[in-house]
UniProtKB/TrEMBL annotation:
SMART domains: PBPb. The lineage of its organism: Bacteria, Pseudomonadati, Pseudomonadota, Betaproteobacteria, Burkholderiales. Gene3D superfamilies: Periplasmic binding protein-like II (3.40.190.10). It is found in: Cell envelope. InterPro entries: SBP_3_CS, Solute-binding_3/MltF_N. The keyword GTP-binding does not apply. The keyword Signal applies. Its main location: other. Keywords: Signal. Residues 35-255 form the Solute-binding protein family 3/N-terminal domain. This is Amino acid ABC transporter substrate-binding protein. It comes from Bordetella bronchialis. It holds the Pfam family SBP_bac_3.
Length: 259
């Protein structure tokens, strides 16, 4: 019996050691492979979406710039938001760059880089809607949101019935067709949408500037201090050499660092 427990303990410690080794070796493995795999939606303009050239967007270009400074290629793996973060757990990719908000709940399970962008949540309704003027007016109303997003949780907090969608475009489509009353979404995404479709009959009536919704970072598996430090260094470099400004002006028409 004593030998059994000794063998069992050795097995448990061995598994823990393997898991720790995987975490500690992520940066070395990425450099050895010559590529960093990045999880992203591919349907979330202007951060990650497709145009005639293929996958593009603010987050996509930030990911490529980080990879370049790590001395590797960026390989993007696309997935739906509600399963995107969980893809890290099964090692589908090494990081998620998809405007992932830095929250205490996520920090308990994952590691984040330093924030690389900030925005705010906005409440969007049809332009002829006079009943919804604030988040408090959402009680009992239907809001189109991805279920596991910060925006979906905010809608639930105010008593809305969340109608699940896969992303921003689907939420706006449901709103315009009258199948939902509202959507809570990112202000930068809304501004980009209005820039391309200025006649769309939607408006933003309220905003939430709390830190939970404003700051986003690069998400990686827990226990990767070397990888986080390397990503932070890369982010600092692209902010210092003008790369970040060039990317932000391209997608938002302004230098977000100056905001």
């Amino acid at each position: 019996m004593k030998r059994f427990f000794s063998v069992l303990l050795a097995g448990v410690l061995g598994c823990a050691g393997i898991s720790l080794a995987h975490a500690e070796d992520d940066l070395a493995r990425i450099k050895s492979a010559g590529a960093i795999k990045i999880g992203t939606e591919g349907t979330y303009a202007p951060f990650s979406y497709h145009d005639a050239s293929g996958l593009t967007g603010f987050d996509v270009e930030i990911g490529r710039a980080i990879a370049q400074r790590l001395g590797v290629k960026a390989e993007f793996v696309e997935g739906k938001w509600d399963g995107l973060i969980a893809g890290l757990d099964v090692r589908r990719y090494d990081a998620v760059i998809n405007q992932v908000g830095i929250t205490d709940a996520r920090k308990a399970k994952y590691d984040f880089s330093a924030p690389y962008i900030s925005s705010q949540a906005v409440l969007i309704v049809r332009d002829n809607n006079t009943a919804i003027k604030s988040f408090d007016d959402l009680k009992g109303k239907r809001s189109a949101n991805t279920l596991t997003s910060n925006f979906g949780k905010l809608a639930q907090k105010y008593g809305a019935q969340v109608v699940p969608v896969q992303g921003f475009n689907e939420a706006i489509d449901l709103l315009l067709s009258g199948r939902v009353d509202a959507t809570i979404n990112d202000n930068l995404s809304f501004l980009d949408f209005k820039k391309h479709k200025p006649d769309a009959k939607v408006k933003a009536v309220a905003s939430d500037k709390s830190a939970e919704f404003s700051e986003s970072g690069v998400l990686v598996r827990k226990g990767n201090p070397e990888l986080v430090a390397a990503i932070d260094k890369a982010l600092a470099e692209i902010k210092a050499d003008g790369t970040y400004k060039k990317i932000s002006v391209k997608y938002f028409g302004t230098d977000l660092l100056a905001k």
